[in-house]
TrEMBL record:
<feature type="binding site">
    <location>
        <position position="526"/>
    </location>
    <ligand>
        <name>substrate</name>
    </ligand>
</feature>
<feature type="active site" description="Nucleophile">
    <location>
        <position position="478"/>
    </location>
</feature>
<dbReference type="InterPro" id="IPR050985">
    <property type="entry name" value="Alpha-glycosidase_related"/>
</dbReference>
<dbReference type="Pfam" id="PF16875">
    <property type="entry name" value="Glyco_hydro_36N"/>
</dbReference>
<dbReference type="InterPro" id="IPR000111">
    <property type="entry name" value="Glyco_hydro_27/36_CS"/>
</dbReference>
<feature type="active site" description="Proton donor">
    <location>
        <position position="548"/>
    </location>
</feature>
<dbReference type="GO" id="GO:0004557">
    <property type="term" value="F:alpha-galactosidase activity"/>
</dbReference>
<dbReference type="GO" id="GO:0016052">
    <property type="term" value="P:carbohydrate catabolic process"/>
</dbReference>
<feature type="domain" description="Glycosyl hydrolase family 36 C-terminal">
    <location>
        <begin position="648"/>
        <end position="724"/>
    </location>
</feature>
<dbReference type="InterPro" id="IPR002252">
    <property type="entry name" value="Glyco_hydro_36"/>
</dbReference>
<comment type="similarity">
    <text>Belongs to the glycosyl hydrolase 36 family.</text>
</comment>
<keyword id="KW-0378">Hydrolase</keyword>
<feature type="binding site">
    <location>
        <position position="548"/>
    </location>
    <ligand>
        <name>substrate</name>
    </ligand>
</feature>
<dbReference type="InterPro" id="IPR031705">
    <property type="entry name" value="Glyco_hydro_36_C"/>
</dbReference>
<dbReference type="InterPro" id="IPR013780">
    <property type="entry name" value="Glyco_hydro_b"/>
</dbReference>
<feature type="binding site">
    <location>
        <position position="443"/>
    </location>
    <ligand>
        <name>substrate</name>
    </ligand>
</feature>
<dbReference type="InterPro" id="IPR017853">
    <property type="entry name" value="GH"/>
</dbReference>
Length: 728
């Protein structure tokens, strides 16, 4: 049984994979956190929370100075009635006060996992895969009920959490803070890990010791953002890639978020995560409810790799959906860095004909095919084909591409509008804005107001008409600016601070509807590259353009950091021209290929201008990737050497039956008279022999425990890729 309740001890024990999560009802209905970690048979109080009289920690019960919420480990804490730490929620009453008091009311345990209203979330295919606990807490004075939702997966060390607020009273309530989860750890003896970055430098790994006070990762940009990612982890001091305890927290949401750790005066650590309270409120009329997004919590006693592999398998098979969830992804050529806005049908067909010769499978037409879109200063929102560039329309171009044996894909950016567009001139109130203030632009565009149903309805029909107009099998869905002047002409003053979350609900509705109408299309998300690489988007689109930075050396860190949470099947990776358009670096076509083949493979350069030698290399890359594609996209991924810690990087992919593997090794800069490098592999069968093409036959135990010597080569930017096959 995944969830059990003991009425004698009033303990709830959630068993998820090989982990235990334990809570207990304390005193008069307070829900306390007891334990989270490696699976235990039972919790009988060996590590019981000590009852002490702590100075300046007030007492709800004046007769008991040893009890204070300021020292009690809690599951969903409030502020104002003796707990001075950061609360999980805060509610304002009509009288202006913000003091609430949630106590246990009832609970329900059932098999399976319910959907979250209007929000993406992990799921089960059969109810036996998980059990769910719904814990109802109540503030009887004001009629507020909060249902804490816990799901324990049977197969994985995964607990998911969310909260639902219901106003069952007679007065209006205003949510000021509504996080999805909170966990109180008994010690702060951890490092915290997050994934900061910037455009072109997304998801770098940063590991820092916990310090007294508040440490946080957050976004106030209206998107999960390049600058932060909705993920943090706590790692034991001795934890590394392959051993030690790690606790992961990943928010299934694409908007403003907060992931916070507070270390208090007693060196306990409170981790909380959810919608960012900054610039957020939500009005709950009597009878109304509010659902928070889901947090996916992963426990690993096998280090960071163990945590990552759990996230990879869960997100690939129980978050991503649709026909492409388990299907191999095509090798594509995108024309953006080849032509930018300067293309026509003839140019696209030249690219397509060359792609067919090289074995590429999909041609993608990027920005510039619609309206008067000759640059980024106009026409976003005018989703009408530019007949000057494409005289035969999308349908005519796509059919010509299909005749070459290739699929046809298209770029769209349906969340934005150019001030210089027919759509904006007709509907200037359809963008995010506030009265009497200038409308700031980014990339010469504004953000459409997806909190409005009429805007969402219009975009659903408009984009559906485009996608139905031609044999399109791939869509790159872009979003190239963050939110400013966040307000809606359709909302009353008291609901203006709901706009950014209502936008996300509208976006999810639009994505859900469009992807459901076109299940044969592979949708790839993009936001200036990786600016919205989050679990919320993966629910609708199984892959994301990892970064606009296609430089092979930069991508070592970007893809390595992304793999901390996200599966390889979610990562778009392309070979581009040199000097690289983002950093100006020159790397070999071989290294660019090896880095890009470590994700969903493609090209983004003018292949019509390549030499015959370069075309032959690409032919060989394409043929090789087709042969190992399933292993890369769906195999078990291991990080071996971190580019954040040395001049080298390495990772590998292992098939489920351990019969084959693919190893990628990279060295950035050459070093004179350098020491030898040995690479210890992972995930192989120690009792099996493996042939490494070009190197020989070795035992799996030798390759993992002794390691394999990296061949010595001169020069900067060196890469190698070895394929291993079990010797039968």
């Amino acid at each position: 049984m995944s969830v059990a309740y003991n009425p004698q001890t009033k303990q709830f024990h959630l068993r998820a994979g090989k982990a235990s999560y334990v809570m207990q009802l304390f005193r008069s209905g307070y829900l306390a956190h007891v334990y989270w970690g490696k699976a235990v048979r039972d919790v009988r109080g060996a590590r019981a929370f000590p009852r002490l009289d702590r100075a300046f920690s007030p007492n709800p019960d004046p007769s008991d100075r040893t009890f204070s919420l300021d020292t009690l480990p809690q599951e969903y804490p409030a502020y104002g009635n003796t707990d001075f730490r950061s609360p999980a929620y805060q509610v304002q009453l009509e009288n202006g006060s913000t003091v609430t008091d949630l106590r246990y009311k009832t609970h329900r345990i059932f098999k399976g996992k319910p959907k979250l209203d209007g929000l993406p979330a992990t799921y089960v295919e059969h109810e036996q895969e998980a059990e769910t606990l719904e814990m109802v807490l109540e503030d009887a004075l004001i009629g507020l009920e909060v249902t804490l939702q816990y799901t324990a997966y049977e197969k994985w060390n995964v607990i998911t959490r969310a909260a639902r607020f219901e106003n069952k009273g007679g007065e209006r309530l205003k949510l000021l803070r509504a996080l999805s989860m909170s966990v109180d750890f008994p010690t702060a003896d951890y490092d915290w890990i997050h994934l900061p970055g910037a455009w072109g430098r997304e998801r770098w790994i940063e590991r820092l010791p916990l310090l007294t006070g508040v440490q946080a990762a957050e976004s106030r940009r209206g998107a999960s953002s390049h600058q932060q990612n909705p993920f943090i982890a706590l790692a034991a001091k001795n934890a590394d890639e392959h051993q030690g305890e790690v606790y992961g927290f990943s928010l299934v949401y694409s908007g403003n978020f907060l992931a916070q750790i507070e270390v208090d005066q007693f060196r306990t650590a409170r981790v909380s995560m959810g919608i960012n309270p900054f610039d957020f409120t939500w009005l709950l009329e009597p009878g109304e409810s509010f659902q928070t997004p889901e947090v996916v919590m992963v426990y690993s006693d096998q280090g960071l790799n163990g945590m990552s592999q759990t996230y990879h398998e869960l997100y690939r098979t129980r978050l991503a959906r649709g026909a492409f969830r388990d299907r191999e992804r095509p090798i594509l050529i995108n024309n953006w860095e080849a032509t930018y806005f300067d293309f026509n049908e003839e140019k696209m067909m030249n690219i397509a004909r060359t792609a067919a010769e090289l074995g590429i499978e999909l041609v993608v037409l990027d920005d510039g095919w619609f309206g008067e879109r000759d640059d980024d200063r106009r026409s976003l929102g005018d989703w009408i084909v530019n007949r000057r560039k494409l005289p035969n329309g999308l349908d005519g171009l796509a059919k010509q591409v299909n005749e070459l044996g290739l699929q046809f894909g298209l770029w769209i950016e349906p969340e934005m509008v150019s001030p210089n567009s027919e759509l904006y001139r007709k509907h200037p109130d359809w963008c995010l804005h506030v009265p009497n203030r200038p409308r700031s632009e980014g990339r010469n565009q504004l953000v459409l107001d997806y909190s409005r149903q009429d805007v969402c309805d219009y975009m659903i029909e408009t984009i559906s008409n485009v996608l139905a107009s031609a044999p399109i099998t791939y869509v790159k869905w872009d979003m190239n600016r963050h939110m400013t002047e966040i307000g809606s002409a359709a909302l009353p003053p008291e609901r203006q601070r709901e706009t950014s979350h209502r936008y996300m609900l509208g976006l999810y509705r639009v994505m859900d509807e469009i992807t459901a109408r076109f299940p044969h299309i592979l949708f790839e998300s993009c936001s200036g590259g990786g600016g919205r690489f989050d679990p919320g988007i993966l629910y609708y689109m199984p892959q994301t353009w990892t970064s606009d930075n296609t430089d092979a050396v930069s991508r070592l860190k970007i893809q390595y950091g992304t793999s901390l949470v996200y599966p390889v099947s979610a990562m778009g990776a392309h070979v581009s021209a040199v000097p690289n358009h983002q950093v100006g670096r020159v790397t070999s076509l071989t290294m660019r290929g090896h880095v890009a083949m470590s994700g969903n493979f493609g090209y983004e350069l003018d292949i019509t201008k390549l030499t015959e030698t370069e075309k032959q290399i690409i032919k060989e890359q394409v043929a090789f990737y087709k042969d190992v594609r399933r292993l890369v996209q769906f195999g078990t991924f291991y990080r071996l050497l971190s580019p954040f810690e040395s001049n080298e990087a390495a990772w590998m992919f292992v098939s489920e039956d351990q019969s084959e593997a693919l190893v990628a090794y990279f060295r950035v800069l050459a070093e004179a008279n350098a020491p030898l490098s040995y690479l210890r592999l992972k995930g192989l069968d120690p009792n099996q022999d493996y042939e490494i093409e070009g190197l020989g036959v070795y035992g799996g135990d030798e390759l993992m425990y002794a390691g394999v010597a990296v061949p010595h080569r001169l020069g900067d930017f060196i890469s190698m890729m070895w394929r291993l096959k079990a010797v039968r």
